[in-house]
């Protein structure tokens, strides 16, 4: 029997790390761990990294950069790296871990030594925008607005504690109102935009789940585009996708936690009777297809399991 591939999760005791470790239980891989009290010890971590096939980084950005530099300083065997942070998502040496981006992108993830797991909001925005921009339905310089709501687990251990332990967090809040959210560079890059969207994220008093929504006035798109062009483009793009589904129905209500605790993403195109307004929506779990679920999809591709 051939040996199972070995994985080390650097940051395995954090929110994203735990989600990935749980999901790995059902895969034919060997998860190599270090004791929780040694989680900040670079020597212990690097010794482990030198022995595994894949390192999954679930750390803050600066700590991720430090781990990547340490791995790249190894003189012998170097593991593949999947990074969950924002640090390398638009770096030219890294492959963006959104397998559904375009035909053949999963093959790029399979072959890559360095893969960046997408941001949660970015996954929804790019899933909706990339096919439409590529098809010329939305112009690259279209003045987009992206609204989104996340479950509070998106804010990591600190935000979870403020909702569940300290109980001093608001039931709903807009944030990122300096309009420079950390996901904007990857959204611009992988949606193929030349103009930065206005992005308004928010958090609600529910643990897991996410809705990303993008309003469009049809008369501001090119003259010959109608709602059916949008629906057909998205339907066609995701026809064979296992995790991203185009939905034909147009529900008048969507709950933020509808797909919580799943690794699925559902896309809808909502319109009015006149068909002169559209809202594109992506619903998923910020910790599922928005984080650990996407990571598992990438791990399977990177290790061939
Ligand atoms: N789409 C995605 O893939 C998502 C990615 N993320 C990203 O994943 C990363 C982790 O986020 P999240 O799990 O929410 O964060 P958490 O705060 O829940 O967990 C971070 C973990 O990393 C540890 N850690 C922090 N600094 C260091 C360091 N210098 N060396 C070693 N270990 C360290 C922490 O230890 P301690 O307990 O001591 O703090 C903790 O165990 C972030 O970059 C975040 O942006 C998050 C959500 C979605
Ligand atoms: C609710 C909340 O605070 N969300 C985080 C995004 C989640 C996250 O950690 O982003 P990545 O997927 O890029 O790692 C934020 O807005 O910074």
From TrEMBL:
Reactions accelerated catalytically: N-acetyl-L-glutamate 5-semialdehyde + phosphate + NADP(+) = N-acetyl-L-glutamyl 5-phosphate + NADPH + H(+)
Domain Semialdehyde dehydrogenase NAD-binding: 6-109
Chief localization: cytoplasm
One example GO MF annotation: N-acetyl-gamma-glutamyl-phosphate reductase activity
Pathway: Amino-acid biosynthesis; L-arginine biosynthesis; N(2)-acetyl-L-ornithine from L-glutamate: step 3/4
Keyword Amino-acid biosynthesis recorded: yes
EC class: oxidoreductase
Keywords tagged on the record: Amino-acid biosynthesis, Arginine biosynthesis, Cytoplasm, NADP, Oxidoreductase
Active site as annotated: 120
EC number: 1.2.1.38
Highest taxon of source: Bacteria
CDD domains registered for this protein in UniProt: AGPR_2_C (cd23935)
Annotated InterPro entries: AGPR, AGPR_dimerisation_dom, AGPR_type-2, NAD(P)-bd_dom_sf, Semialdehyde_DH_NAD-bd
Pfam families found in the cross-reference section: Semialdhyde_dh, Semialdhyde_dhC_1
Transmembrane region(s): none
Subcellular location(s) per record: Cytoplasm
NCBIfam families in alphabetical order: argC_other
Family per similarity comment: Belongs to the NAGSA dehydrogenase family. Type 2 subfamily.
Functional note: Catalyzes the NADPH-dependent reduction of N-acetyl-5-glutamyl phosphate to yield N-acetyl-L-glutamate 5-semialdehyde.
Protein name: N-acetyl-gamma-glutamyl-phosphate reductase
Biological source species: Commensalibacter nepenthis
Gene it is expressed from: argC
